[in-house]
Amino acid sequence: MLITQNKLWFKKAIVLLDDSLVKEVVASKIYSAIDILSYKKMLLVGFRVKEKTIALIDLMREEQNIFDSFGETTRKHIRRTQNNPDLRFDSIAIPTDEWYELFKKFEYSQNRVPMPRKDFKSFRLFAAYYKDSPISGVSVIESGHYIRTITIFSKRLDIEDKKLYKLTAWSTRRIMWEICLWGKKEGFTSFDLGSVNLVDPKKAGISDFKLSFGGGTMPEYTHIYKSNTFAFFEKLAMLKNQIKKIIKL
C-alpha cells in the first residue's frame, strides 16, 4: 500500500508491506521523504534502517486453533463480550468523522499527534459499540497476503464507570478476534499486530496486550529517507513546537 502526504512544502511517501512498489517510489525522485515498512532488510542508497520486533498471528491455522492460542484471560474476556446484548461489532470500510474524533482525542491523551483525517479514513476500521455508542476501534491496512494494525484506540481513558471501563477493554480484545475471523474469510495469511517493545517498561502494557493473542515474533524493518532540505525544515518545525510548549508552561 502506498500513502502520500504533504509535509510543509514537500511530498512524503509511505510504503506499507508492499515491496513491489519500492523500486518505483525510490526511482520517481518526487518525494523528499520516504518510509518503507517491510519484513525484509533492503540495501537502499541514502536510507537508514530501523529494526523492530513485531507480533504476528498465523491465519492459515483453523479458527479454533487460533483462538486456543490466545492467553486464558484474553479468551475469557472475549467470551464475556459474546454474551452481552448491549455490545455490537462491525467492520467499516470508510470510517466516519465520529470515529476520527474519538481516535484523535485518544492520540492527544497519549501525547501523540494523530494522523490526518484523510489517512485515517483510508484504513478499514474494526469497531465496537456499547448501546450503539462507539467505544473502541482498531484500524488496519490490507497489503498482499497481510493485514496489519495501524492504530488501536478506545474511549476507556474518559470512562469513570468501572463496568463500562472493563467492557471497553474486553471489547478491544474481541475486535482483535473479529479481525482474525475476517482475515481468514478474506484469504489473508497473517495478521501483523505491529511492534512489541520487550525492553521499555512504559510500553509493557501494549506489548503484553499484543502478545496475549499467542502470535509469534519476528523482525520488521523501516527504511527511512529524508532529503537534507526536508530534514532541516523538519527539525525547524520540531524546535518551533518545543518553544510553543515552553511558552505555554
Report what the structure shows.
This protein has 249 residues and is an alpha+beta fold. The protein has two domains: 2-52 and 222-248, no CATH class; 54-218, Aminopeptidase (3-Layer(aba) Sandwich), CATH 3.40.630.30. The protein is built from eight helices and ten strands. It has helices spanning 22-28, 63-68, 72-82, 97-109, 117-120, 162-186, 204-211, 228-248; strands at residues 2-7, 10-16, 33-38, 48-58, 87-92, 124-130, 133-143, 146-154, 190-195, 216-226. A ten-stranded mixed beta sheet has the order 1-2-3-10-4-9-8-7-6-5. Helix 3 packs across helix 6. The longest helix has 25 residues, at 162-186. It is globular, with a radius of gyration of 19 Å. The model has no long low-confidence stretch (mean pLDDT 90).
Summed up:
This protein is α+β, with helices and mostly antiparallel strands. Helices cover 38% and strands 32% of the residues. It is globular and about 55 Å long.
Please supply descriptive tags for the structure shown above.
ten-stranded mixed sheet, 249 residues, alpha+beta, Aminopeptidase, globular, single chain
CATH topology of the largest domain: Aminopeptidase
Indicate the structural class: alpha+beta
Shape: globular
- Our count of domains comes out at 2
Full CATH superfamily name of the largest domain: Gcn5-related N-acetyltransferase (GNAT)
| Assigned CATH class of the largest domain | Alpha Beta
CATH architecture of the largest domain: 3-Layer(aba) Sandwich
Low-confidence stretches: none
